[in-house]
From TrEMBL:
The keyword Membrane applies. InterPro entries: Homeodomain-like_sf, HTH_AraC, TPR-like_helical_dom_sf, TPR_rpt. It comes from Flavobacterium silvisoli. SMART domains: HTH_ARAC. This is Helix-turn-helix domain-containing protein. PANTHER family: ARAC-FAMILY TRANSCRIPTIONAL REGULATOR, HTH-TYPE TRANSCRIPTIONAL ACTIVATOR RHAS. GO terms for molecular function: DNA-binding transcription factor activity; sequence-specific DNA binding. Keywords: DNA-binding, Membrane, Transcription, Transcription regulation, Transmembrane, Transmembrane helix. It holds the Pfam family HTH_18. SUPFAM superfamilies: Homeodomain-like (SSF46689), TPR-like (SSF48452). The keyword Transmembrane applies. Residues 410-522 form the HTH araC/xylS-type domain.
Length: 529
């Protein structure tokens, strides 16, 4: 491993010139940029137009940025330069990321990766892969993120020491999230060892920080206290309030688990102070407020208890918005309904102790009745969807989307369609790693053409098309072969080529309108083989 910088080549120089020109334009006023844009339009200088649109993008309000981004991308595409087009997709992806629209950000980063892959800039390629991996990790697709991180790891090991260490750290965190705690420890220890060998200890406190959290997952609370207490002074010196907040949360929770609540409280309160000052919150920090509510409830302090109930309700709204893709995975001791009930109870105890019992009973009865009605309606809807699915025959072909025009040679289109029919007949879509790039290989074309053909003649985006074929195949297996009805979800997912059980169950529910459990149970009950 060495500490050399990424290689310089023609594409790198073009890209750096592109960025440098952007920063030069950034010093100009908005009016100057508009004048510059007009001159570029007159000359049909699409490269300069793209860069100027990018500069204008950062000089306008948030609502108008995406319009500039679309113009920037359109001009970049006209340059036919993969480096410029890839950079434009990166910029647009960053806009979506800042808006916390992470799925659209991921789409744009993947497009950026497709174009940057056509350049010779290996460093930029892997930097983009690393960004994609980070977003996949955020969205909870940890297995996919780990695979990408490991690709980056092999490259960065020879090219960039700090990037290599950062990637080790990211892999460890991802393994912790999927419960592979020993692998998390392995990468944390490797990171510390490698940093020492390279005389680069910048990330050492973060590996120890990660291992402290990992030990909490293993319920080794004394180890948590030891490791997080060790790194908190360094994180304080670095003024890394985010890492500090996470460290204090896990340290407080570890003390609580060790029944040392008075030691836990200062840590838990520091997390709340960081939230008040920086509005920083993550799903892992939510439990902090549950413990604060419990503490003040035990201390018979209804004012403080009510304060943290209100704070947790506010935090839940933030988490539902900012972490909506992970919100269903967050274990909530206090869910929203329970919080609202407790809030009402505390408010009434502060005002009066009279009639609270009847109010709670009425509320509970109303909730139960509402849930009962909602359950019956839901079951009726599911039954209708099940009956519809059972009577539905597999689609032989999708309707052509006549709204899409293809600027392609008709003979080429027919060849691709023939290959598409072979792809479907041979059930190649069941391969586990099937995606747009591999699909394009089967169709003997490039990903761009493959995507357009699928959209026009199968009326779906490529991944949606592949996913639907997998689910339709699953339904047919369950309808016709009894053994598959006794498969675990993991086994079913592997049978039809899904990368994870979570992706399989999510796709099944999205396409059929019901969870696989409901479908299989009704098959066994009403349609035995």
């Amino acid at each position: 491993m060495c500490a050399k910088q990424h290689p310089t080549n023609t594409k790198t120089i073009l890209f750096l010139l592109y960025i440098a020109f952007h920063f030069n334009l950034g010093a100009q006023s908005k009016q100057q940029l508009q004048n510059q844009l007009q001159k570029a339009k007159t000359k049909k200088d699409y490269r300069q137009m793209a860069v100027t649109y990018k500069a204008l993008l950062y000089r306008t309000d948030t609502a108008a940025r995406f319009a500039y981004a679309d113009s920037m991308l359109s001009c970049a595409e006209k340059t036919k330069d993969p480096a410029a087009i890839g950079a434009a997709f990166l910029t647009k992806g960053t806009l979506y990321y800042n808006r916390k629209d992470h799925l659209k950000a991921l789409d744009n980063f993947i497009w950026a990766d497709n174009y940057i892959a056509k350049t010779n800039d290996e460093y930029l390629k892997y930097k983009t892969k690393y960004t994609i991996a980070q977003i996949k990790s955020y969205l909870g697709f940890y297995d996919e993120a780990i695979a990408l991180f490991k690709e980056c790891l092999t490259y960065f090991e020879e090219e960039n020491d700090l990037a290599y260490l950062n990637t080790l750290h990211s892999i460890g965190l991802a393994y912790n999230h999927i419960g592979k705690y020993d692998l998390c420890s392995y990468y944390n220890q490797l990171g510390i060892k490698t940093g020492t060998e390279l005389d680069n200890k910048e990330l050492q406190p973060y590996f120890i920080h990660s291992e402290g959290i990992n030990q909490y997952s293993k319920k080794k609370y004394k180890e948590v206290v030891s490791k997080l207490t060790e790194v908190i002074p360094t994180l304080t010196k670095k003024k890394d309030f985010a890492a500090l907040s996470v460290a204090n949360a896990y340290l407080g929770q570890a003390y609580w688990a060790l029944n040392q609540k008075e030691k836990a409280m200062p840590c838990l309160l520091k997390v709340d102070q960081t939230f008040n000052r920086h509005h920083y919150i993550k799903p892992e920090l939510r439990k902090n407020y549950e413990l604060l509510i419990d503490y003040y409830k035990e201390k018979n302090n209804p004012q403080a208890q009510l304060s943290y109930i209100n704070k947790l309700l506010k935090i839940d709204r933030i988490l539902e918005h900012d972490y909506k893709y992970l919100s269903q995975k967050i274990f909530k001791e206090y869910d929203t309904k329970k919080l609202l009930l407790e809030k009402e109870a505390v408010q009434k105890s502060l005002a009066t102790n009279k009639r609270w019992y009847y109010a709670v009973i009425i509320l509970l009865l109303g909730t139960l009745i509402g849930l009962s009605i909602r359950y019956r309606i839901k079951q009726k809807q599911l039954k209708l969807k099940f009956d519809e699915l059972m009577s539905q025959k597999p689609e032989t072909a999708s309707k052509t989307n006549n709204n899409i025009e293809l600027d392609l040679n008709p003979e080429l289109v027919q060849n691709i369609l023939k290959n598409l029919e072979k792809f479907e007949a041979g059930k190649k879509y069941l391969e586990k790693d099937m995606g747009l790039n591999k699909l394009a290989l089967y169709l003997k074309t490039n990903p761009k053409y493959a995507s357009k053909i699928i959209l026009k003649y199968r009326n779906k985006k490529s991944i949606e098309y592949i996913t639907k074929l997998k689910i339709e195949h699953t339904i047919e297996l369950l309808k016709t072969q009894n053994k598959y009805r006794n498969y675990t979800y993991k086994a079913l997912a592997e049978e039809v080529g899904f990368g994870s059980t979570q992706n399989f169950t999510k796709a099944f529910k999205t396409i059929t309108g019901m969870p696989p459990a409901y479908f299989i149970q009704n098959l066994k009950k009403n349609h035995p083989l």
